[in-house]
Every structure is written in structure tokens, then in C-alpha cells.
From TrEMBL:
It comes from the Bacteria. The keyword Cell membrane does not apply. It is an enzyme of class 2 (transferase). Gene3D superfamilies: 1.20.80.30, ATP-grasp fold, A domain, ATP-grasp fold, B domain, Phosphohistidine domain, Pyruvate Phosphate Dikinase, domain 2. This is Pyruvate, phosphate dikinase. Residues 398-467 form the PEP-utilising enzyme mobile domain. Residues 55-267 form the Pyruvate phosphate dikinase AMP/ATP-binding domain. It holds the Pfam family PPDK_N.
Length: 590
């Protein structure tokens, strides 16, 4: 019996709270008979124990060794030794998806000796050297938290190690087992990184959940012309259309796509180069969407023509996509009304009702840059190129647009502060795109080298729906809540399920308490006192979702405000038991 680890062989399906979303998806795909590289998981309980003592709990090191031995048995390869070396990835996996917020180390187990063995086995020394270089770059950045510059395949492992030691003051461990344990500790530590804490705070995710760690046998998308990597969505996460959507990068590893360092090709290019793997991917996506009753975000690798699925999760989606997908799935009978309301957040509805460009406004404007329409919406502000500056200026009340060559998890605070995010590299599945959609922030990616960082200090209008950046401040108009049929439909459903009635200010007829006019009415902690004996109120702290929940506890029967649907959704969430609210949080944020 093991206490801290579990083998993800598909024979059973533990709770996500124990093995994290990534581990759960690996186990689920294995159970469905899909091609998944073998893996074991270090549980969130181990993370909790580690966070308490800053050291492995007793028995974990032995269990990891047992897990590696099992991977060796499953693959017929040997970790850290030839002639057929086993390389593994070490990936974070929280129960509630936090894309790009925590750490991953690939190609663990490669050394000068295993590089030679790998080169002999596959007959490709360039591939083996490239894989070795990638390991050093990630280990330096993720585990040692140092920047040693760009490494070259023309350098040796000794060269890379020397540069890392000079930059970090620390020696790279020689033993592959020591490197593995250092990577596991780095993933545990990333749960408490500044960016992860900010993301959880923004999305109201509890801090005590911890992360699991998935240790999985590597497959290689950088093994030549019949290999590659990509990300695929079972429906379009930007506009919600029921067609597959994704990106593919030939002869590359997954980090190349999600980091935004490279701009990948459309998924169609995979059909031309690897038709059998492409067809297998479409079949898997359809199966996973049916099984999970939600849009799937699938990470995959093709090695020598064979498709491997690495992860499948509920897709982050733009507000427009969330609305369309909900309505389509209701029509299909895939989800019920309660589930439908859990699939869209109050903030997403507010984003849908945010200002838009009037018809024809862009035709008369000066276009500064064009890129990939990665997350819809309009953002107007001054371009800044530093995330710390974006956060500082936004706190001072300034409207800012964050422009970066490409974003990383360390830019999260700037992305939260910005009214739009624009990048020079990367595609619609890059870090910038995925996180922007999760935040409901307009985003344009892949505008070209030097195209957007050169706009620093300039006021611009970003059209995330069109993938365009315009000079100056363009006029905008607010959508009508009653003109969007999908919102009208959800509002009617929410009215039936909401514990309170929500009316517009003009329908209150002067009989409501206006908390904007009451001293202390903007503070949530004052609501129990201010709402005693009050049935109908609006304004003040009731403009906040947590304030709405507090109002319910204080006995409110009617809330006055607009738009109505976000208030109804917040009321439904606020009235549910804590366990049910956690389920809603998972659905809304995964």
C-alpha cells in the first residue's frame, strides 16, 4: 500500500482533490483506452505535508522510487541509464485548473551518458542534443530560479552546467534521482509562488488545496518530421462554434507552443503532414467531450507518427464562447439548466455586456498592428511593456494595455491589471491567450517582432475579436442585455433558480434601500447590521458578488441593480452549500 503516490493505470479513478486535474485526466483517458504515456502521481496530501515542514513526508522518496520502477516496467526503459533510457516529465496538477501558474520540468533523466544512448537508439544525435539542452534550460529556470541565457546545441552539457553554476551559485546534481527530487520540490513550491497566489485570489480558489505532481514517461514531439506537438479544443474557445480548433508545431515539444516563444501553425497543417494522427485526435476529442459533457482542451504529442494524449481538461473559453456553448449544449441535451448556469460566471456576463466598437468604426481608424484574435473584447488605454508598471499605474486609476514580446506566468499581475494584453509572438493557445480568456481580458497575439512593444506610451484601442490594434481612443457602445438571445435565455433560467428576485432601478419605485446613500454601505462587513429587517436593497456592497452572498445571509428578498443576470448568478452561487460552491468553482474556472 502507498500513502503518497498512486499509479495512473486507469484501473480506478480517485478524486481530483487528491490527484489533481492533470492526474485525473491521465487516469480517465487510460480507462477509456486512449493512448497515454504511463504515469504516476504524487498526491495533494503529500504537497500539504511538504508545505507544513518544507521537506518530504516520511516514505515519499521510497514511493517515488517505486513509481519510477513501475514506469521502467511499463516502458521497457531505464531511468538515468542506457541502452534505452527513460526520460520523464514532472508536471504540476491542481484540482482546479490554474493554467500556466505552476511549474513543469521536461526531459528529466537525461545526462551525458543517456544523451549518447538516446542518440544511438534513435539514430539522431541532433535530437538527443536538443533534448539535453532543453532539460538544462528548464532546470535552470524552474528548479534553480535563475536565468543563464539562451543555450546552444553546439555547447556541451559541461558548458551548460558551468553557465548555470555561474548564474545561480549552485551545482547541478549529477545523480538523475537527485534531479528528480529537486524538480518535485520545485513544483510543490510553485503552489505558493506569487503568481499562483494572485491567480487564486482573483478566482476565489482556496489556498489550502495544494498541487499534485504527475511524473510521466516522456514522448518526443521533437524527433523529426513525423513528430510534433499541439493543443486542440473540441469546440472553438473564442467564439464557441462547434468545430475543432487548435494549433500544431512540427518537430517541437509542448513547451514551445504554450510558452509563446514560437508561433505555431493551424491544426489543419497536421492533417496534411500526419493524417492518421490527426484523425485519431479528432476521434479522441469527440469521445472525451461526450464522456465529460464539456468542451475539451487537449494537449498532445505525435512521436514518429503515433499520437499520444498528455492531458484533457475543461477548456478555458472566452465569454462569447461560453454563452454559445452553453446554449448549444442545452439544445443538444448534453447539460441541464443547473449545469448551464455553473458554466458561466458573473464576470463573464459583465464582459459580454462591456462596450463594443460601433459598426464601421474600425474602417475609419488607423491600424497599428494585426495579430491573432486570441480573446475577444475591447480594451482602451496606454501601452506599457512591464507588468510591474502596469500594476502600479492601474492602481493609480490609469487605463493600461500590457504589451510584451510574449507573456509568462510571472506577468500574471500585469495581465490582471491591464484592460487588454497584446504580444509579438505566440498563437491562440499560448500562455497569453489562455490566461487572458480565463481572466476575460481582450488579447491579440503574434503581432510580429517589435510591433507592439514599440508602442509604449501610446494610447491605443485593442479589438480582441478582430485581432487588431488601433491608434488612439475609438468610440464604443454598450450592448443591450435584452438584445442578446443567449443572455435572455439564461436570465429566464436563473430567475427560476435564484433565491432572490432581481429588478432594475427604474422598477424599484423608490421602495428600496440605496446602500450608496448609507454610511458604510459599501463595506460588506456592515451588511448584516444595515440590512436587518430590510427586504429590498441595491447599490453599495451589493455590487460585489461576495456582498450579494452576504445580503442573502442577511435575509434580502429582492436586489436592485443592472445588469440583472450577473446578480442572479452571484445569488445562486452565494446560496449554495460550500461543497456545491466548490463544484461550481471548478466548472467555471477549469
Amino acid at each position: 500500500m502507498t500513502r503518497w503516490t498512486l499509479k495512473l493505470d486507469g484501473s480506478h479513478l480517485p478524486e481530483k482533490t487528491l490527484i489533481g486535474g492533470k492526474g485525473w485526466s491521465v487516469a480517465r483517458m487510460a480507462a477509456l483506452g486512449l493512448t497515454v504515456p504511463p504515469a504516476f502521481v504524487i498526491t495533494t496530501e503529500a504537497c500539504t505535508a511538504y508545505r507544513g515542514s518544507k521537506d518530504y513526508p516520511e516514505g515519499l522518496e521510497a514511493e517515488i522510487a517505486d513509481g519510477i520502477a513501475w514506469l521502467e516496467q511499463q516502458t521497457g526503459r531505464t531511468y538515468g541509464r542506457g541502452p534505452s533510457p527513460l526520460l520523464v516529465s514532472v508536471r504540476s496538477g491542481a484540482a482546479i485548473s490554474m493554467p500556466g501558474m505552476m511549474d513543469t520540468v521536461l526531459n528529466m533523466g537525461i545526462t551525458p551518458d543517456t544523451e549518447t544512448a538516446l542518440a544511438e537508439e534513435c539514430g539522431d544525435p541532433v535530437f538527443a542534443r536538443d533534448t539535453h539542452r532543453r532539460f538544462h534550460e528548464l532546470y535552470a529556470h524552474i528548479v534553480l530560479k535563475t536565468e543563464a541565457g539562451e543555450f546552444s546545441n553546439d555547447e556541451t552539457a559541461q558548458d551548460w552546467a558551468a553557465r548555470i553554476e555561474t548564474a545561480s551559485g549552485r551545482t547541478l546534481p549529477a545523480d538523475p534521482a537527485d534531479r528528480l527530487h529537486a524538480a518535485v520540490r520545485a513544483v510543490f513550491d510553485s503552489w505558493d509562488s506569487r503568481r499562483a497566489k494572485r491567480y487564486r485570489k482573483h478566482h476565489d480558489i482556496p489556498d489550502d488545496l495544494g498541487t499534485a505532481v504527475v511524473v510521466q514517461a516522456m514522448v518526443f514531439g521533437n524527433m523529426g518530421g513525423t513528430s510534433g506537438t499541439g493543443v486542440m479544443f473540441s469546440r472553438n474557445p473564442i467564439d464557441g462554434e462547434p468545430t475543432v480548433y487548435g494549433e500544431f508545431l512540427a518537430n517541437a515539444q509542448g513547451e514551445d507552443v504554450v510558452s509563446g516563444k514560437f508561433t505555431p501553425q493551424r491544426l489543419d497543417t497536421m492533417l496534411d503532414a500526419l493524417p492518421e494522427a490527426h484523425d485519431a485526435l479528432l476521434r479522441a476529442a469527440r469521445m472525451l467531450e461526450i464522456e465529460n459533457r464539456d468542451v475539451q482542451d487537449i494537449e498532445f504529442t505525435v512521436q514518429n507518427g503515433t499520437l499520444y494524449l498528455l492531458q484533457a481538461r475543461a477548456a478555458k473559453r472566452a465569454p462569447e464562447a461560453a454563452l454559445k456553448i452553453i446554449c448549444d449544449m442545452l439544445d443538444e441535451g448534453t447539460i441541464d439548466e443547473k449545469t448551464a448556469l455553473s458554466r458561466i460566471t458573473p464576470d463573464q456576463v459583465r464582459s459580454l455586456l462591456a462596450p463594443r466598437l460601433p459598426e464601421g468604426a474600425s474602417a475609419r481608424a488607423k491600424q497599428l498592428a494585426r495579430g491573432e484574435a486570441a480573446s475577444p473584447g475591447i480594451g482602451i488605454g496606454t501601452v506599457v511593456t512591464d507588468s510591474d508598471e502596469a500594476e502600479r499605474r492601474a492602481k493609480n486609476g490609469e487605463a493600461v494595455i500590457l504589451a510584451r514580446a510574449t507573456t509568462s506566468p510571472d506577468d500574471l499581475h500585469g495581465m490582471i491589471a491591464a484592460l487588454a494584453v497584446v504580444t509579438e509572438r505566440g498563437g491562440s493557445t499560448s500562455h497569453a491567450a489562455v490566461v487572458s480568456r480565463a481572466l476575460g481580458v481582450p488579447c491579440v497575439t503574434g503581432c510580429g517582432e517589435g510591433s507592439v512593444t514599440a508602442l509604449a506610451g501610446r494610447k491605443v484601442t485593442v479589438d480582441g475579436s478582430g485581432g487588431l490594434i488601433f491608434d488612439g481612443e475609438l468610440p464604443v457602445q454598450e450592448p443591450d442585455e435584452t438584445a442578446l438571445s443567449g443572455l435572455v435565455r439564461l436570465t429566464r433560467i436563473a430567475e427560476r433558480l435564484s433565491p432572490v428576485k432581481v429588478i432594475l432601478p427604474e422598477d424599484a419605485l423608490g421602495g428600496a434601500l440605496d446602500l450608496n446613500r448609507v454610511e458604510g454601505g459599501s463595506e460588506i462587513e456592515n451588511l448584516p447590521r444595515l440590512l436587518t429587517g430590510i427586504d429590498i436593497a441595491g447599490g453599495g456592497a451589493l455590487a460585489d458578488d461576495k456582498g450579494i452572498a452576504a445580503g442573502l445571509r442577511a435575509g434580502l428578498k429582492t436586489i436592485v441593480g443592472r445588469p440583472r443576470l450577473p446578480i442572479l448568478l452571484a445569488a445562486i452561487r452565494g446560496a449554495r452549500p460550500s461543497e456545491d460552491r466548490d463544484t461550481v468553482a471548478v466548472s467555471a474556472t477549469e
